[in-house]
Amino acid sequence: MTATPTQQPQPVLADPAAVRLARDAAQEEAGSEHVGAHVGVLVEDETSVTHFFEADHAGYRGWRWAVTVANAGEGTPVSVSEAVLLPGNDALVAPQWVPWNERVRAGDLGVGDLLPASPDDPRLAPGYVESEDPAVEEVALEVGLGRVRVLSREGVLDAAERWRGGDFGPRSEMARSAPAACGTCGFYLRIAGALGAAFGVCGNELTPADGHVVHVEYGCGAHSEVEVEGGSAVPVADVVYDDALLEVEVNEPVARSADAAVDAADDVAADDVAADADGAAAGEGDTPGAVDEVERVSDAADATGVSARATAR
Fold first, then answer.
1. Cα(304)–Cα(299) distance, rounded to whole angstroms?
2. How far apart are CA 171 and CA 151, in angstroms?
3. Hey, which of 14, 155, 217, 267 would disulfide with 151, CB 3.0 to 4.6 Å?
């Protein structure tokens, strides 16, 4: 810290003697702890300044001893006004104190704990004041004045915002993957009053939301109207051969006649060759020309499929 340019302290307040006086005062307050180096001076006014010294206390890193000295005027001695330990800019300090009723969070209330509401809680309003909730007004008319305090408009809006942004609101992970919303589910129990248009209670014991307030646009996989497609989980290939139909192929008559003619020609040629061979063996004459003629006829019949009779000459 340094002196500001608009105010200049009396020279006697910033001379070495004043610094030694301030250090002695800090040492007296610190006791056995060592007081560190002089790190700055702050001008309070024309007659007083504050000198800062590093604090070497264990666990007080960044803290400083602040000693204010003053002078009543020329010819008067410099005196010590106060000496205190103050945190610096990078000092480790305790968090700001918060009243206990403001420190309580959702889930802190345990069995046997008492958590009274403050008299000026903005979430509550006197029972004789209109609550802007038709259901509350109806009950109040039936039993007289009704409850001492009822939920105020601010309390209703606060609850609605909290429920909508919670685990059972439309932006939750469960709702984003659901097949349908609670507003069309048979397990959805709509609540009465001003919040009934947007909120209800889940009545499905198989869901995480059972017994909880859910938004009308919330949803889960246990919706009452959800349908699951049946069938085998194993993929089945398309049928390659369909044996439900009988296919009949009709052969043309011309083709059958040609095949029969070829077979008949083969049979006749074979019979002629056998007869000629038998005649030659019986001594009817060995005529080389006749044998050659039979062989040529037989080969021709096999090659062309046309019947030919061989005669021996």
1. 9
2. 26
3. 155
Give Cβ neighbours of residue 147 (< 8 Å, ≥ 6 apart): 127, 140
Q: Coil, helix or strand for 16?
A: helix
Quickly state the pLDDT bin for 305 (edges 50, 70, 90): very low
Query: Between the CA atoms of 118, 122, 126 and 127, what dihedral angle is there, to the nearest 10 degrees?
Result: -110
| Cα four-point dihedral sign 263, 269, 272, 276 | negative
Between helices 253-281 and 288-304, what is the axis angle to 10°? 160
- Both tokens of 88, joined, read 């610096």
In the chain, the DSSP E strands lie at 35-45, 48-55, 63-71, 78-87, 124-126, 149-151, 188-190, 199-202, 213-215
* Count of residues in the chain: 313
Phi, psi of 217 (to 5 degrees): -95, 5
Query: Which residues on neighbouring strands pair with residue 64, listed in sequence order?
Result: 54, 86
* Measured distance CA(129)–CA(137) in Å, rounded: 10
32-50: pLDDT as tens digits: 778 889 998 988 888 899 9
Place of tokens 């949803």: 219
Give the whole-angstrom CA distance, residue 78 versus residue 8. 16
